[in-house]
Design brief:
2 copies of one chain form a homodimer. Chain A is an all-alpha fold and 239 residues long. Chain A has a single domain, classed as Phosphate transport system protein phou homolog 2, domain 2 (Methane Monooxygenase Hydroxylase, Chain G, domain 1, Up-down Bundle), CATH 1.20.58. The first copy, chain A, is built from 9 helices and no strands. In chain A, helix 6 packs antiparallel against helix 8 and helix 7 runs antiparallel to helix 8. The two termini of chain A are 37 Å apart. The relative contact order of chain A is 0.13.
């Protein structure tokens, strides 16, 4: 092999290594964020303001991860000038970390509501719905990150479609909370707190769906955001 | 001038033109989104479900703009391989349009609540606060887009700091709504609707602040997201 080819191969190997490292950092951040969501919901359901405070404090670490990975992506773009699927990968990482950071923000919001609820000396008045919705969105987030790791556009597409379950549970919870507020004025404060929690969980589901959409974009080069998902299904090859 | 230099100058002129065009498209999208926010709030305050429906329907156009501009940025990155401040500009545009698209989503949410409220045959029960908060966030959005257009990091920084006014108005509105719900069970539904509107307005303010932060990043190369803003102030040169 000519010396020039060896050099080129070496550069290309380094480049691939950089892409893998950035991906690994993003997935690691995803794992941390996933734990934050679960910890925030646990603190809420157990009315544990100490655990809730810990969630709020570790948001700083998530923010730092976002900035570091964003910087990593910038340096890859500036030095390696990737094209085609490599460029899509770097841009997808840059977008996913924004959603992950905002999931971290929502977890902090849930933790703050957990503290409020513990002071209102009330239980989570929509506990079964909160638990159910939290389980669904945590699974969505896990699924979206797994789909990214495995470059699995089909799995991502299935995730991008599945929010009817969240909608149904949200509707059930909201009806129950409105009924409670109408019949028990004393419970209004705690019901409002619970409503904010449910809305945050719903937003976490939205962010997980965004991540799933970026996976499809990255793998297929098809941008499914805002697209009719049925139409996209036709575009994807059978696996 | 040598022919090669002329060619280089020609390419560089084309490149600058592409950057300016992408920026213009982004600012144009910003203008459309700004109008959506104002139209959604007007529909809400006037309980005009026809105008609200129009806001919901034009969200599709905003989504299409996001995809087009994102594609434009991708092509610039792939073909021109920008570095340093040009790269920061393209990445900033790519991030700003995500926030703009989500402001469009929040406007649609407000419009949907306007329709709900018109069916609940109630006035917006926090009208003065809704108006006040809407005015503040619309100004923030306008200010953030202006700062981008003028590459004005100082103006962006001022915007990134100013959310105490929103917080104070949100607190006032929430107290009033909770009082109303406690004293008038019949008003619970409409109060909940209004709460979702206020939350959407608050989120629009968050997105406007994100845009302001991207302006600072673009102009100064300093990432102020999550940073102590006082510390960033020291970093910026006096203008």
């Amino acid at each position: 092999m000519a010396e020039q080819d060896l050099h080129r191969q070496h550069i290309s190997g380094q480049f691939n290594q950089e892409l893998e490292t950035a991906t690994a950092h993003m997935l690691e951040m995803g794992g941390v964020v996933e734990k934050q969501v679960l910890a925030a919901v646990a603190a809420l359901l157990e009315l544990d303001s100490g655990d809730a405070q810990a969630v709020i404090e570790s948001d700083r670490a998530i923010n730092a991860m976002e900035l570091d990975i964003d910087d990593e992506c910038f340096r890859i773009l500036a030095r390696r000038q990737p094209a085609a699927s490599d460029l899509r990968l770097v841009l997808a990482i840059g977008k996913v970390i924004i959603d992950l950071e905002r999931i971290g923000d929502e977890s902090s919001r849930i933790a703050r509501q957990a503290i409020a609820l513990s002071e209102q000396a009330e239980d989570d008045l929509a506990r079964p719905w909160t638990q159910k919705i939290a389980t669904i969105v945590a699974e969505m987030l896990r699924g979206a990150l797994d789909a990214f790791a495995r470059r699995d556009a089909q799995a991502a597409l299935a995730l991008a479609r599945g929010d009817e379950e969240i909608d149904a549970n949200m509707a059930g919870a909201m009806t129950a909370l409105a009924d409670t507020m109408r019949s028990d004025p004393e419970a209004v404060e705690a019901c409002i707190t619970t409503m904010w929690v449910l809305r945050s969980l719903e937003r976490i589901g939205d962010h997980a769906r965004n991540i799933a959409e970026y996976v499809i974009y990255m793998v297929e080069g098809v941008d499914v955001r805002h697209a009719e998902l049925e139409a996209v299904l036709d575009l994807l090859p059978e696996r």
